Amino acid sequence: MLALAARRIIATVIVMAVVALFVFSLLYLAPGDPAAVIAGDQATPADIARIRQSLGLDRPFFIRFGEWFWRILQGDLGRSIFTGSPVSELIGQRLGPTISLMVLTVAFAVAIAVPAGVFAASKAGTWVDNCFMSLAVFGFSVPVFVIGYVLAYVFALQLEWFPVQGYTALADGVWPWFQSLVLPSITLGCVYMALIARITRASMLEVLQQEYIRTARSKGAAELDILFVHALKNAAVPIITIVGIGIALLIGGAVVTESVFAIPGLGRLTVDAIMRRDYPVIQGVVLLFSFVYVLINLLIDLAYTLLDPRIRY
Amino acid sequence: MALLEVEDLQTHFRTPDGINRSVDGVTFSIESGQTLALVGESGCGKSVTAMSILRLIPEPPGKMAGKIRFMGRNLLDLSDKEMRGIRGNDISMIFQEPMNSLNPVLTIGRQIGETLRLHQGLSQKEAEQRAVDMLSRVGIPEPTRRVGEYPHQLSGGMRQRVMIAIALACNPKLLIADEPTTALDVTIQAQILDLVRDLKTDIGAAILLITHDLGVVAEVADRVIVMYAGRKMEEASVPELFANPKHPYTEGLLGAIPRLGSSLRGATARLSEIPGMVPNLKKQIDGCLFSERCYKATDICRKIAPGLEEKAPGHVAACHYASKEMVPA
């Protein structure tokens, strides 16, 4: 277990270095010149050149990458071209809402989608199954912003159960915090839930055919025990894999969801930074998202061995 | 009163191209402490009969009719909850494939303990302790270590011992063993059969043994039923059946057993075989189901299905041509 963890962590570090290289190359690959943006419409070419020089944009690629990477290793993500404040500080201010949104979304999605998939599989071919799977197709196909606006209209404007927009920090009370995130989480989680429910169903269908399920029945185990103890643990590996991979979906979706519900999170920060060609901020945010994604998938790889004793790396 | 009385059991399956009569009107009974063998080739309905007794047939597509009386109660009338109280407690089952019959992600101890927790209300800890006892009873060395292991850490024979431990944990009155030794090496087969026999005597259980191996039947069973195409063809005590088979199908099965040294004697080196295939159970067949493959068959066999008749004391067969012994008046 420890050797495995060590090997996987080394692999993760290598992956992160490659990711960093890509993130850094963004600056060269993306259209638009930050110096020109900063200088504004009236600037002369000489002004732009001066700004380029002051930002260090005129020096060779690998030298700048080396310097940049070295600073990152020391925890310094640079400063925003626009506001001049450190990127880590900007990210720090926006981290809370996004993490809250992500965590609640994953929690909602797993709590709803896994049991839905399990029941759909146990009732395969019946109307229960058809209902769940039609909902899943619906969740896949309706765009995030449509779901967001519809939910906001019905549950916030008409029924007034939840606030229409905005975010309340956890420090200001658990209940207001939860209320402000219910609609965004469900909005963001729709596609994710659909994905998890479908994979759960497929994985469970296969497991329910197995002979050890018949053994469990022959022992007199109750149906719920058979589904959630005997079968689900065997079906868990593909399910948690998709939970991990799906985090990527959430990161993309968070940008839209935060806009719809006016949540001051990293998604909004990213969009603003892209608009302004604020490269240090974009790099910082993308690097952070990649790191979170790789880290979660590392944890999931480690979790395989806990779920299935046959898995040894 | 017999422990188990199966009366005119019919287990049919609805399929897209018609109804499959996997078990069609089978009647038999088992006394306490008796070992009854159910033999026949693959697809003759012996496993479906076993699964029907525990009501493990999924409905739909399956459908059961008839009566299965266990200690006087018709199991087909019980609620699901009452049925769960019987499974693994009064009637338990061991399966053919020890490789696939154990849950790969739960420990051995957990799987043995489960029946005890379900039926005897033991706590997790007590159940684990009893699981250790059960493991040593079925002859697994180092039971305290093994109890925390997973199925993939055990050999095939060991896993079948674990299955037996699970099945016998609650001292069932009836043990259904569905081809318990088929997937094992010959040496292990003998050990497992001995184990089943010893434990059966210990706890006084009856056994319904499903097998296609007549060698196993001769070894452990008291009575034997020969099934073919979902019907009972012949029933007799084991010595009687081997000495005096009445049904041509039984003769065929006995003729197909290889005998040690038979090739040395020359002439009859070749085993006899039964020509043809099991009939399609989705088709309505008027005559004897075996008539297409039977060397004795005549027109009457193809038109009228023979009923089960007592051909000798305690020996029934369904054949127009099975000779009837004169029972002394």
Automatic annotation (TrEMBL), chain A:
Principal subcellular localisation of the protein: membrane
GO CC, alphabetical: plasma membrane
InterPro entries named in the record: BPD_transp_1_N, MetI-like, MetI-like_sf
An example Gene Ontology molecular-function term: dipeptide transmembrane transporter activity
Superkingdom of source: Bacteria
Membrane disposition: Multi-pass membrane protein
Record domain ABC transmembrane type-1: where: 95-304
Transmembrane portions of the chain: 9-30, 99-120, 132-156, 176-195, 235-261, 281-307
Location in the cell: Cell membrane
Keywords, comma-separated and alphabetical: Cell membrane, Membrane, Transmembrane, Transmembrane helix, Transport
Pfam families to which the protein is assigned, alphabetical: BPD_transp_1, BPD_transp_1_N
Family statement drawn from the similarity comment of this UniProt entry: Belongs to the binding-protein-dependent transport system permease family.
Protein name according to UniProt: Peptide ABC transporter
Gene source species: Bradyrhizobium nitroreducens
TrEMBL record, chain B:
Position of the signal peptide: none
A GO BP annotation: transmembrane transport
Subcellular location, principal: membrane
Localization of this protein: Cell inner membrane
Superkingdom of the source species: Bacteria
Keywords assigned by UniProt, alphabetized: ATP-binding, Cell membrane, Membrane, Nucleotide-binding, Transport
GO cellular component, one term: plasma membrane
Membrane topology: Peripheral membrane protein
Organism of origin: Bradyrhizobium nitroreducens
Annotated ABC transporter domain residues: 4-254
Name under which the protein is recorded: Peptide ABC transporter ATP-binding protein
Gene Ontology MF annotations: ATP binding; ATP hydrolysis activity
SMART domains: AAA
Function summary: Involved in beta-(1-->2)glucan export. Transmembrane domains (TMD) form a pore in the inner membrane and the ATP-binding domain (NBD) is responsible for energy generation.
Statement: the UniProt record of this protein carries the keyword Nucleotide-binding: yes
Family: Belongs to the ABC transporter superfamily.
Pfam families linked: ABC_tran, oligo_HPY
